[in-house]
Amino acid sequence: MLSSVKRLLIGRPLKSTALGEQKLNIFKALAILSSDALSSVAYGTEQILLVLATIGAIAYWYSIPIAVGVLFLLAALILSYRQIIFSYPQGGGAYVVSKENLGVNSGLLAGGSLLVDYILTVAVSVSAGTDAITSAIPTLHPHNVLIACILVVLITLLNLRGLTESATILSYPVYLFVIGLFILIGVGIYKIMTGFVPSAPHASLGSPVQGITLFLLLRAFASGCSALTGVEAISNAIPNFKDPAPNNAAKTLILMGSLLALLFSGITFLAYYYGISPKANETVVSQIARETFGRNYLYFFVQGTTALILVLAANTGYSAFPLLAFNLAKDKYMPRMFTIRGDRLGYSNGIVSLGIASILLIIAFSGKTTQLIPLYAVGVFIPFTLSQTGMIIKWLREKPAGWVAKLTANLIGTIITFTVLMIFFITKFGQVWSVLIFLPIIVLFFHRIHTHYEAVGEQLRLDPEHPAVKIEGNVIIVPVAGITKVVENSINYAKSITDQVIAVYVSFDREDEKRFEEKWEKWCPDVRLVTLQSHYRSVVQPLRKFIDTVEHKASESNFRVTVLIPQFITKKSWHNILHNQSSLLIRTYLVYKKKVIVATLPFHFKK
Amino acid sequence: MLSSVKRLLIGRPLKSTALGEQKLNIFKALAILSSDALSSVAYGTEQILLVLATIGAIAYWYSIPIAVGVLFLLAALILSYRQIIFSYPQGGGAYVVSKENLGVNSGLLAGGSLLVDYILTVAVSVSAGTDAITSAIPTLHPHNVLIACILVVLITLLNLRGLTESATILSYPVYLFVIGLFILIGVGIYKIMTGFVPSAPHASLGSPVQGITLFLLLRAFASGCSALTGVEAISNAIPNFKDPAPNNAAKTLILMGSLLALLFSGITFLAYYYGISPKANETVVSQIARETFGRNYLYFFVQGTTALILVLAANTGYSAFPLLAFNLAKDKYMPRMFTIRGDRLGYSNGIVSLGIASILLIIAFSGKTTQLIPLYAVGVFIPFTLSQTGMIIKWLREKPAGWVAKLTANLIGTIITFTVLMIFFITKFGQVWSVLIFLPIIVLFFHRIHTHYEAVGEQLRLDPEHPAVKIEGNVIIVPVAGITKVVENSINYAKSITDQVIAVYVSFDREDEKRFEEKWEKWCPDVRLVTLQSHYRSVVQPLRKFIDTVEHKASESNFRVTVLIPQFITKKSWHNILHNQSSLLIRTYLVYKKKVIVATLPFHFKK
Q1: CATH code at B2-453
Q2: What pTM was computed for the model?
Q3: What is the pLDDT averaged over residues B288-299?
């Protein structure tokens, strides 16, 4: 039953050899991996204007030079990540680059930030999308959290179905959004050029603005940089590309950068030219679309696809998180289970963990995750800075052909990203301080996992000097509660293994003990019976003491002790509460506490 | 750690031989077993007046003849249960009486009603007590449900500590309540006799009342009968008494009946004489106490002890439920676990189940359990009627000395309780209809459990005609994932049992398979290695197929198949998430689905 539900939701299992078919071409990869970056266009310009609005509309013209700055940073990042893709074609992005060039801790810091960041991406973008939905249908508003959780579950299921399938479904909304924005920008510019838009009261570039400070401009710049989150995703997900993977990934990266640059400049320009102010109840993009089209179907098309892409931005996290977790797990910094491919060849454990973590976050913040956005921006600029610094070290060390140009690109990138990171910490410390606490904790945990796995490896390694000593024989202890078919089966099995079989009976009073001893003597005189008195009515305690004694004696002559416990397999699952409590107790206790082997002998009820 | 918390809350385990010390003397038994019945005094009179108030104050004098009727029923019940105590000194009350004389289904009906009733008692009385507390401290009001749940947990813990300990703690409030009410009634009557109370505007007995109907009087009578719930508790709990148990139980019953009669008549008389009307925001007892004492410390003493006894009424359920469940479980109508005495010699499973069930009920009704009171009254009058009918049959069949008098007592009791039951169904059908649905379901479930245990007994019974066939030998399958110390241990153990050892390796690709085969050949050439290809990356599926094949072959020559699975025992519990996922999966699957023996070989990590 369970497995058919699973099959319905996720699809039939795929053979390992089908892995190649699950790889992405450029068209699909662009849709899936750039949805996060492209969706930032929906709010990037607004973030800049919100900061400038504290001075007044006169300051809005600064959005143009700030946007130029953002574009410049974008170009540096794209160039830099392009170099990372070719240098580290196995993927892993910032984690691998930092680890290889700056040391393990930097790598873990980059990896940890990104893992947290992808969880934040999913929580924030799904919450934003849910807000858009419930703003349109207000009766759904009280169910915000539930709807967000359902959306996360749906995206998780889609990703469990596999990459190509989710890419096929999810690429339409992304391209529709891009088309919608291009039409918007095209029509807007056409109208401006043909003079249709009434000359808006925008201040011309360079107008003097009173009260403007460097601090404010830096804040506006940092806010605008939030449009750049998601740029790193492609470098983590190179193994998901069709061959030649690095080339395809690099092409996708360039395409994404160009689209992002075009859309961001277009929207920022229109906002400036129309003289648009950010409003509490209408987004900047909505205002631009309304001014350009009026409230017609094109306006609703832009609004609809914007809401969709906000939800789908989550999907970038789903593509990058499992691969990053795989890389960390491969290096033994995360549980081994993240290296296992599921039925549909995705790293299911990573996908499911991401889903669960973001649902917990959504519930913890009651769906109000916008306060997490600054955290999220910091979380991505840390790996940006680390990975570029790593590349600088790499060029300096290896000095390949043309390394000066490459170094320059990364150096500029490092300086800008580090500056932005500092601006974040200085201008928004109240919102991002928690990063300074939880990132070290995460890195510490990575180390503890690593230490454990290393210790385990050492303990498991064969020692040819000291091979295991030959076992001389076996003692089997069979706890019995009566003389039944189960006991008959157990004794029969035990006798087939060794002639050292001890039946143990725990009795609560003397008379019962005597009665049982007599019955046993009659039924099975060739197997030794030991009766134990339990003054405290516990079966486990006397059994434990007895097993200790036997184990101690047996180990002296290198005998192994096996405890044989019957397990009733009931026909109906509710029957389980009528049985097996003692077996379970004994088994759990013995497995975890003792050095004995615990054998479970199933007894299948026929009714 | 866990066990020391348990010891702190519940106390050190008691030896089985200490059972005698855990028995109750009359003084403690009266406190513990009559708190339910005595607490009814706090609301019994009020219930009658509430019905009469629908006609008007003129009708209040009817409370006197109605109270006489209730007292008459009380006397019949006490007499009748006294006879039950001596006839069935092993306890079990209505369940045993009905089962022995009327047949199994009547017994189960009586037992089922009482079980449900004790759950309702706990939920209703604790909710009522919580209401009293939060009325006094209104800031606590929003936490009603939480407080009620905490109270249930406290009472549960107290009962897990054992009978005498809970009796010692809980008897003070009960006796204080009794003393308080006696002072109230004494002072009240003294004041009336000395003429201190201004002649109240009460209608004299026998005044004609317009609009009074038989239906209304019957409803008032039935409501007054809710004061009689709890009378049966002693007959269920006879084994908890010090020897001679039946005599002590009978004395306690008579004492309880007398106290109940005195208090109930006193309160009803004062209410009538003072001409008190039931009010929404003040109880009848509070009004009487205020009129008698004024708002001085005696008034608050009565109010405080009344609130306490409402909570403690729950305790009667805790004494009776586990013993009733024990009786049902002994007869195989409930899971066997209800027959096991815990560390402190109480039937812990019954106590804990009662606690959990009432917490669930409190949560389900958000602490508003007053609507359950009629259910609760019906639930107790069903076993009243059944047990007395059972006693009639018993006297008719056995005809012991003086049987006519005994029969008469039970006959009168039966007629009245049956009448009250019918009145409940007729006058409050809307509130009690659900009994007609869930009681048959409970009885059905008792039967299904019984059928299952019977079937199990049959399947477990030794068949001397067909003794178990001797096992010819053993095959041990050892799933291996590499060549490590764990594998070395496993193979070593397997070889000590049989020479039919098969190591199984599940590989995901051909190269890996080949490599492993070569390594194995070098390391352990004398143990056969089987490699299985897993196209779908599942370890369990290919293993399952392989085990099926081996099992099939082995069973032909009467060989047993054992699968040996290593289990890592980690030093720290959080390390568990880093290991054992596959072992757990394989073991769970094999134990439940297959006929093979599953042996768990522990490997203790040292760090």
Answers
A1: 1.20.1740.10
A2: 0.77
A3: 87
